[in-house]
Amino acid sequence: MANILSGLANLGLAGLENVNLYETEDKKAEPKPKEEPPVFKEHDEREYVFGKSHSCPVCYNDFKAPTVRQSKLRSKGADSDLRPRFAGIDPLKYDVIVCPKCGYAALGRFFDTLTPPQAKLVKEGISRTFRSIRSPKDVYKYDDAFTNYQLALGNAVVKRGKASEKAYLCLKMAWLLRGKKEAWDSGYEPYQGDSYAKDVEELNQDELELLKNAVEGFMNARQTETFPMCGMDENTLDYIIAVSAMKVEKYDIVSQMLNSLLGKAGLNSRMKDMCIELKEQLKAVSK
Ligand SMILES: [Zn+2]
Predict the structure, then answer these.
(1) pLDDT tens-digit series, residues 216-259
(2) Span from the CA of 162 to the centroid of ligand 1 (angstroms)
(3) How far apart are CA 37 and CA 42, in angstroms?
(4) How many whole angstroms separate alpha carbon 52 and alpha carbon 203?
(5) Which end of the chain is more exposed for a tag (fewer CB within 10 A), N or C?
(6) In the chain, what are the domain boundaries?
């Protein structure tokens, strides 16, 4: 991925491909070779999703978008950075809603919270050149979902959305790429390239790039916005920032977040344990 938004040209939005989210600089991560992909296992995700009705706040088109049935979700815990995992489906793939007619896209929690001036910006910056999606899909592969997230991020830039919204999209996109890698590894989604190790490494690098953008955006949002932010309280967000900053080697931020978290009297014991563990990791890399 040359840029987080590369690929949007296919939707008629080439101008957004090289846009800067918060004006960042590039940094490379360590390559790590992987084994061959396992064999693809047939499965059907349709039993987990249904077509939910939406009305577009930009073009007033009524449409249906695939949505996960909450009753079908069985938790399998979470990663150290609180990325949730579920049996049989990754609901993260379905969090972005896309209007197939005008290209307006946003995470479900933000879809209807569009001001009239923002709707105008979306019309000018997205809808004007967006190529309508003739036959929207009823289940998403990781690549479909990633394109939807790219479109949501493009919309967030165009509508001058808050830093927290853009950062949250970057965080979820990073999680999505981790999900894609796991789906290849487990045979849930077929690997179709010809250099597995190279493509896995590219996913790792792209995940780090997205996490870096998420950390930067959230640090910015912490200074200018109020909690709850994207549905997260201050402790949860500070912890996610700390873990993500650790992955992208921004140790000063890890330290800052941990000091803030561990200095709080009301921190719950689980969060405290996770912070102490992270502090140990930080000590180990700081030696
Ligand atoms: Zn629309």
Answers:
(1) 999 999 999 999 999 999 999 999 999 999 999 999 999 999 99
(2) 21
(3) 15
(4) 31
(5) C
(6) 8-15+40-232
